[in-house]
Predict the structure.
Amino acid sequence: MKAKDNLFKVKSTLNIRGNLVDLNTPKIMGILNVTPDSFYAGSRIQNIEMAAQKAQEMLNNGADIIDIGGYSTRPGADDISVEDEIERTVPIIEYLIKTKPDLIISIDTFRSEVARKAVAAGASIINDVSGGNLDDRMFETVAELGVPYILMHMRGTPQTMKELNQYDHLLNDITKEIESKKQQLLSLGVSDIIIDPGFGFAKNITQNYEILRNLGYFKRMKLPILAGVSRKSMIYKTLKSTPEEALNGTTALNMAALINGASILRVHDVKEAAETVRLYRAYKG
């Protein structure tokens, strides 16, 4: 499979507000959760001051992108209103951009109205865990805003996804579902697309590891791949530990993701991920 995967030339740049970002060197996306109930307590941010401090820490440690989310997508998470999500995220984006105009911020949302407000405030990437499934205006909004879009695979909602992990052929089914959305986006003129196979979203632990082993399979879509395994249950349940104890496991799986083709790592722990990228580059030669 690896030799065959090499036949697929993956897009290696992103146009972010007129600047080309080279993905030949893997990028680090630091997670900034403005939520009281994210699955990993260490990632929860309560106010603008905490957010600014955390963002600066991540940038100092090597983050290329700050991913800001105001809606917890852990399994069974509470639903919140669009207004609450905007209130949680937009003021922080405005503050960060005011102090660091060149900062690359992604908005982690599946709602087009939140995405629109966030981009107006200074965000320059939309990271949609639903891949457009939960808001039928999302794709046209992305096209209108002209920003890169992270197209993640998920079924159902954060409240129902655990029950929707039945596949005829895991890799092929995920590819077909992402490819269909990719074609919709291309038809609207969206060309900067990143794909995320959605570790933990409508997948069980065994399925997560099958995806990780075969991450290169998704290169046939010729788009950069984002891997988000940071402190997830595929790590801490396998190790019989907790999210708080899952840093070492995260580092191990981030290296596996890089070796298997990831261009972006979405992480809670930026310093360790940046070190992993440096070691991966040394290993690759």
Q: What stands out?
A: The mean pLDDT is 92. The chain is about 40% helix and 15% strand. Residues 106 and 125 are 4 Å apart (CA to CA).
